[in-house]
Amino acid sequence: MLLKLILVLSAFVALSVCQSPELGGSGSLNQYFAYTRAVQNGQLGVQFNMTIESIQETTLNINLTTTIIVHGHQGSAKSSLNPTVKDALLTNEDANAIIVDWSQFSSQSYENAVKAVPSVGTYLGAMIENLVAANVTTLDQVHLVGFDLGAHIVGYAGRTLGGEVARITGLDPSGKSWGPNTPRISKEDAKYVEIIHTDTFGIFPNGIGDPIGHADFYPNGGASQPGCFLYRPCCHKRSWELFAASLAYTHLQGNQCSSMLQMNLNNCRGFLHPMGTNELVKLGSGIYRLNTKSKYPFLLSWL
């Protein structure tokens, strides 16, 4: 009887472990899709895994910037963020684009998705190391772009690589469960870290309001985006819509602010700094505000 009880308990523990998203192996389920201008609109891209041999079978080119895009909670490789940003990038620049799909965990509850973030990001960092080993890119050519929880994933990836990637862009990084004393995305994760805040204030915001990068942009004050009528998901996703517009246009520039108070009062008159783009080296730092209109390409508004 005792032996039977031990066997039952062992099976239960094994089942619980296999189902736990807290395991370090969560990121082993990441999927990667490579695009260049040769494989672009309307196609899924070339799927590859972390092996050097698999990477070398893609059309990735060491002479091009490598931009890696990571979706957020409830996203996938096919969700609107990915085709929109990827197509905007490749239409306007000859570049390598890699979409990371971690939907095995992002499709679960927010709490489970949060638990998977460290492993997903660490595995992404290891994959980038193999990109370098396969001679298809260098860390100085890598731009990591993450939305929502994806912003913290690219933070983990950058940390795994010693903060040596050229650039990280966090698109309205998730705020829930990512307070000041957590391993959230930060300016230590890459040589240049830019944050675009679009849903950060008020009741139950999705994003982080604190400036956490080298340069932090607050379009329209970082909340209540034009045309969204206080609809939270609309304000949240405006971050990647603005980023996509910045890849095609150069008008999205913010004025530097001397403080968050000045930003909130819409009284910033400092140096202009371009928001977004795919530039690997950007020298601006501090807090920036810009005001936009409600529809693509989000022309600047001075009202």
TrEMBL record:
Signal peptide, first to last residue: 1-18
This protein's GO CC annotations: extracellular space
Organism domain of life: Eukaryota
Protein's cellular compartments: Secreted
Recorded GO MF terms: lipase activity
UniProt keywords, alphabetically: Secreted, Signal
One of the GO BP terms on file: lipid catabolic process
SUPFAM superfamilies referenced in this protein's UniProt entry, alphabetically: alpha/beta-Hydrolases
Domain Lipase: from-to ranges: 48-270
Cited PANTHER family: LIPASE
Similarity comment text for this entry: Belongs to the AB hydrolase superfamily. Lipase family.
Name this polypeptide is given: Lipase domain-containing protein
UniProt organism field: Leptosia nina
